[in-house]
Design brief:
- With 308 residues, the protein is an alpha/beta fold.
- The protein has 13 helices and eight strands.
- An eight-stranded parallel β-barrel has the order 1-2-3-4-5-6-7-8, surrounded by seven helices.
- β2, α6 (108-125) and β3 (129-131) form a beta-alpha-beta unit.
- Bound molecules: dihydroflavine-adenine dinucleotide (FDA).
- Residues 132-133, 159, 161, 184-188, 225-228, 252-254, 257-258, 275, 289, 292-293, 296 line the site of dihydroflavine-adenine dinucleotide.
Length: 308
C-alpha cells in the first residue's frame, strides 16, 4: 500500500483531526473541488447543470456513524425531503445512503425501519435507492438490510467493493437474488486479510466481476463506478466482443473528478451518472477522496499558500 494513502485514510478516521481540520479555510477551499456546496439546494443546482450535458445524478447527504437515534431519524426525514425536491424539479436523480448514517451502529432494526420509507418513496418515483458500502465490519449487516429490502422492493441497489476478498462470493449470491449493483474498487483502510491491496490485482478483479454480472444477465442494473478510464475501456472492449452494447451498464463518477471524461463518455454513447455529495459532515468523506489521489494534497497546499 502507498504510505501517503495509508496516512490519509488513517487521518480520515481520527477524531481530533475531524474536529480541527475542517475549521481551516484552505481545507474548506479544497473541499469545494469535490462538493458543489453544503446545502441540499446546492446539490440540486449541480444536478441541473449536469443534466444539460446529459448526465444523471445520485445524491448523498454526507455523514456516517451517527451516535444518537434522533440524529438518524432526522437524516431519514432529510432524505424524504430530498425525494420531494427530486420530484418537484423533475430530475433524473437517485439517492445513495450510508447505513451507519441511518443508525446501523445503534440498532439494525431501527435502520431498516428508517430505510423502508425511503425505498417506498423511491419506488413511487420510479427511482432507485442505493446503499453505500462502508468498511468491512459493516458488510454483513449491510447485506442483511439489502436482502430484506429487496424482498419487498425491486428498486434497491447495493455498492460492492472489488478489493474485498469476499466480494466474488457475495456477488454470486447477489446475482441469484436479482440485485442491482454499483461496483467500486473500495475506499477504506482494510487489513490485508480482508482486502487485496495491489492496485493491479484490484483492477483485474473489478473487470472480472463486471463481466460476471453482464454474463449472468439477471434482472438488476450494473453501474461501474470508477474514474479509471483505462479500465473502463478494457471492460468495454471485452463486453463488445461478447456482444454487449454500451447501454448494458452505466458509468458512475464523483462530482468534480474527471469532468472532461464524464462528458466525453456521454458523447460516446454511455449512460453516465455523477454522485453529488453535500452536507456539512464532509471530513471523513473528503479525506477518503484525498487518499484516492494523494497528489490532491498539493491542491490543498496551494490553497494554503494562496491564502497567506
Ligand atoms: P483510481 O483510484 O485508480 O483512480 C483512477 C484515476 O482517477 C486516478 O489516477 C485519478 O486521475 C482519478 N481519481 C480517482 N480518484 C480521485 C480523486 N479522489 N481525486 C482526483 N482524481 C481522482 N467506495 C466505497 O468503499 N463505498 C462506496 O459506497 C463507494 N461509492 C462510490 C460511488 C461512486 C459513484 C464512485 C465513483 C466511487 C465510490 N466509491 C465508494 C469510491 C471507490 O471505492 C474508489 O475509492 C474511488 O472511486 C477511486 O477509485 P477509482 O476506481 O476511481 O480508481
Amino acid at each position: 500500500m502507498n504510505p501517503a494513502r495509508d496516512a490519509l485514510l488513517w487521518a480520515s478516521s481520527n477524531r481530533w483531526l475531524r474536529e480541527h481540520l475542517p475549521r481551516h479555510r484552505f481545507v474548506r477551499a479544497t473541499v469545494a473541488r469535490f462538493m458543489p456546496g453544503e446545502r441540499m439546494e446546492d446539490a440540486i443546482e449541480a444536478a441541473r447543470g449536469l443534466a444539460l450535458d446529459g448526465i444523471a445524478a445520485t445524491f448523498t447527504y454526507l455523514g456516517e456513524n451517527v451516535e444518537e437515534r434522533a440524529d438518524a431519524d432526522a437524516i431519514a426525514e432529510h432524505y424524504l425531503r430530498l425525494f420531494d425536491l427530486i420530484e418537484e424539479r423533475g430530475l433524473d436523480a437517485e439517492v445513495s445512503v450510508k447505513p451507519t448514517h441511518l443508525g446501523l451502529d445503534l440498532d439494525p432494526e431501527d435502520t431498516y425501519r428508517r430505510l423502508r420509507p425511503l425505498a417506498q418513496r423511491a419506488a413511487a418515483l420510479g427511482r432507485h435507492l442505493f446503499l453505500d458500502m462502508e468498511s468491512a465490519p459493516y458488510v454483513d449487516p449491510t447485506l442483511a438490510l439489502y436482502r430484506r429490502l429487496l424482498e419487498e422492493f425491486e428498486n434497491i441497489g447495493l455498492c460492492i467493493q472489488a478489493y474485498l476478498r469476499r466480494t466474488p462470493r457475495d456477488l454470486a449470491d447477489l446475482l441469484a437474488a436479482g440485485a442491482s449493483v454499483r461496483l467500486v474498487k473500495g475506499a477504506y483502510r482494510e487489513s490485508k486479510d480482508v482486502a487485496i491491496r495491489e492496485r493491479s490485482a484490484i483492477r483485474s478483479i473489478f473487470g472480472r466481476l463486471a463481466f460476471e454480472f453482464l454474463r449472468w444477465g439477471g434482472g438488476g442494473r450494473l453501474a461501474l463506478a470508477t474514474h479509471d478510464v483505462g479500465l473502463l475501456s478494457e471492460i468495454e472492449r471485452r463486453a463488445a466482443a461478447a456482444g454487449f452494447g454500451r447501454d448494458a451498464y452505466e458509468i458512475q463518477m464523483l462530482y468534480g473528478i474527471r469532468v472532461a471524461d464524464q462528458r466525453r463518455l456521454v458523447r460516446e454513447g454511455y449512460r453516465v451518472r455523477v454522485l453529488i455529495a453535500y452536507g456539512d459532515h464532509w471530513y471523513p468523506w473528503f479525506m477518503r477522496r484525498m487518499a484516492e489521489r494523494p497528489a490532491n494534497v498539493w491542491f490543498a497546499v496551494r490553497n494554503l499558500v494562496a491564502r497567506r
